[in-house]
Amino acid sequence: MSTSGGSSGSERDLRLDFFRGIALFSIFIDHLAWNSLLAQFTLQALGFSDAAEVFIGISGYTAGMVYGRAIERQGLLMAAMRMYHRVWQLYVAHVFLFMQFMATTAYLVDTFNNAIYAEELRAADFLKEPGVAVIKALTLQFQPAFMDILPLYIVLLALLPLVLIGFRLWPAGVLAASFSLWAAAQLNKSIALPAYPGPDHVWFFNPFCWQALFFLGAWCGWRGVRGGIPWLTNRWLVWLAAASALAGLLIRSSWTLHWLYDPFPALFGDALWPLLSKTNLAALRFANVLVLALLVARLIPAQAAFLAGRVARPCIMCGRHSLHVFCLGILLATIGRLVIDEFFGGVLLQCVVSAAGIAIMIGTAALMDWFNAGQRPSGPQVLRASATDGRV
Amino acid sequence: MSMMGRFLHQTIGLMTAVGIGLLALPGSAPAQEQDCAVPASFYDTEPTLPKTAAAIANRQPVSIVAVGGASTLGRAAGSPDLAWPARLAAALTSRFPAARVTVDNRAVARQTAQEMAARLDREVIPLKPTLVIWETGTTDAVQGTDLDEFRQAVQAGIDRLRASEVEVVLMDAQFSRQTHAVINFERYESVLREVTDANAVPLFRRHDIMRHWAERGVFDLITVDRDKLPLVASRLYDCIGRAVADFITRGAHPETGAPGASSGSHP
Question: Which chain A residue shows the shortest CA-CA distance from B231?
Answer without folding.
Answer: A116
